[in-house]
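Case study 2.
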Amino acid sequence: MNLRTVFNRAGTRVARDVRDWETRWAMEILTRPFPPLPATQLRRNDRDGGERVFSTVLGEEHVTWRIPAGYRIELHGHAFVLISRRSRRLAEVLVEADAPVRLQGLELEALQPPKPGEIRLSGPAGTAGTVVVGEARRVVDRGVEAGGDGWRTWNGQRRLTYHLEEPLTEKGKSTLCVAFSAIGAPYDFTYNYKSSLAEVDAYRLYILDNFGSQGSYYYADHRDTGIFEAVQSFLQEISSTLGILPAGMVFLGSSKGGTAALAHGLRLGAGRILAGAPQSFPGTYLNGAAPDILKFIAGDSTTESVNWLDQMIPNAVGSTQGNPSITVLVGENDSHKHVHVEPLMKMAADAGLSIQTLVIKDLSHQDIGAAFGPYLEAVLQPGITSTEGSLPYRLARKDGADSMVQFKLWLPPGEVAAVEVRTAHSQVFTAGYSEETYFLFEAPANEAVQATVRRRVGDAEAGSFTTGWLQPQR
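Prediction:
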């Protein structure tokens, strides 16, 4: 064994010892608000490492964690992560309760000079809660701590975490796109459709639904609708700050995100709502698909709680502000089409609202994002204008072959389409009316290309649209 190997092994051992010490120290900090645990309450397994589980009843006193100076906190609605001076995620706290509770942070950011901070858990007196303290393994790192990667926080009735992207040009400053997220894995709080909106010339706002373990539908915590009201207040404040009227706002999302886009867009009077396979009856849906989320939002999973949450969209339809343009995209093979979308159409018609429905052939609920993302690109990139006749599509150069172009189209059932592709100077590809949805063809590698699609049902024209330009590879 040479001297370099000896030093490398020693350095690795020292680094591991430091990490182990930091983790033990972090666990000590985060368990201080609670009495010592008997051995039976210490939970260990290979997947989660060591976890300590505490039961608590909230009273007039808060449960308070004091955070040493210079350390950072990634704070969510019902969880937080302690982060070291070297940006290492040390340990986390997860909270569950039988009533609406809040985690609040005081002086969370590492200030100059550094100051200590506090995290407080509060809720109605008598609230029974469970607090899990463990190594930082469950809360997925999405870079949201202390303003990382452009994330910011808004403090109101509830604390919201959001990311705002600037328009591409001055013209885009008249429009605000608001994206709501679908259900993710437990403690994986993130956004959807960021890449689909990357070339949209508008403000693009992403709000995390980081309440509970898998979100709240941007709506409630144990029937406390303070989350919904906080999102409404935040949207009113940010649109006012940006100088954008409700008519210039586009609300969008799929599944849970589509439900939230409808609820918030109808209440706020957004000019446009784009929803992919939303749940018009989220209580019924969650009772079968995700009962833990239902219990967090409505308090339990009784029939009465299911019915209470099922009123979320009917109440929004009944209190609609303005006359929004609404499009719902859903798959032909998605049970949401019959269970949720068709009743939504009837609700809307009874309320005097008009909803355009776009049904896509051979699309299930699991694959809704595969079509909804391209649909957003198709209808928003041209400039947030009326794009009747547009379908989801992908126009891209084939990897490793810049002179080969791929065109993927999502068609409604019973439709055929004709495709024509051209450069600024000449036509490079045509395909007559057929049910074909994927095309691969040769095109100049150094020129932009654009496609025009014409749709037909039987002998009747069903609309047409032209894609944006696909630029040459740089």
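Confidence is low (pLDDT under 50) at residues 5-15, 39-48, 108-114.
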